[in-house]
Write a structure and sequence with these properties.
Blueprint: H1 5-16, H2 45-57
């Protein structure tokens, strides 16, 4: 391999390069100061007792059952076969 003058100069400069020493203040402006977040507020004991009482007094709602006094239509059963389609020929 033939070395040129420029290659020799480049390699010599790289070998002689000394990195500047790091100081503790070098990170100023690049890193934010850490501040601990505020602790969350604790719930009040009186509210917990009231909320627990309200929860225990709630009526249980089950899926598929209508609520008492609800005049809504009953749910359709989507898996029932349509009686009109039983005698019809299939298209495929």
């Amino acid at each position: 391999m033939i070395r040129s003058t420029f290659t020799d100069l480049y390699l010599r400069e790289i070998r002689n390069y000394k990195a500047p020493p790091l100081k503790a203040s070098d990170s100023e402006g690049h890193v934010q100061k850490f501040s601990a977040p505020k602790p969350p507020q604790s719930p009040e004991d009186g509210d917990i007792a009231r909320d627990l009482k309200d929860y225990e007094e709630q009526e249980v709602e089950l899926e598929g059952q209508a609520a008492t006094g609800d005049g809504g239509a009953p749910e359709e059963n989507w898996f029932e076969d349509d009686p009109d389609d039983e005698g019809a020929p299939t298209a495929h």
